[in-house]
Amino acid sequence: MDMLPPAPRLTILGYVRSSLTERQLAPKQGSEGAPEAWIELDDYYAPALLGLAPGQRLVIVTWLHEGDRTVMQCHPRGDKTRPKRGVFATRSPDRPNPIGLHEVEILEIAAPARLRVAPLEAIDGTPVVDIKCTDRP
Predict the structure, then answer these.
(1) Fold designation for 14-66+95-133
(2) Residue 100's beta-bridge partner residues?
């Protein structure tokens, strides 16, 4: 039997700090009235913020830690009147690997490694696993 290579490691860069504290009360998407939030990164990642500026657009990649990894189908937007779909055809946080993609704008950058962004529908304490710039200032 072939040996599998070691599993890759997912590194948590920091956490979302938000007024949203309950998954059930959070908007389904940022465009649905999600608030501002802070992305608090470990100080180690401060050099990785070089080149970012307020006004830039980012995709924040999160680990939706409260997602149910056993769910393979759901009602879109939680609406039980709609037929179920496979989770790969939805934005549900319930899925085999609950990765969140959040399109935001930088409002402020604070030392040593903090970003105030909006809109962000992730709840307080959500782990951040990557940040991708989608434009330049």
Answers:
(1) Elongation Factor Tu (Ef-tu); domain 3 (2.40.30)
(2) 62
DSSP 25: G
The secondary structure of residue 117, as a DSSP letter, is E
What does pTM read for this prediction?
0.86
* Residue in 76, 128, 67 with CA at minimum distance from that of residue 95: 67
Query: Do the strands 127-133 and 37-41 form a parallel or antiparallel pair, or are they unpaired?
Result: unpaired
- List phi, psi (to 5°) of 59: -110, 120
Distance spanning both ends of the chain, measured CA to CA: 52
Side-chain half-sphere CA neighbours of 48 within 13 A:
14
pLDDT tier for residue 91 given thresholds of 50, 70 and 90: confident
Q: Can you give the residue ranges of every domain in the chain?
A: 14-66+95-133
**Burial (Cβ within 10 Å: 0-12, 13-18, ≥19) of residue 103:** middle
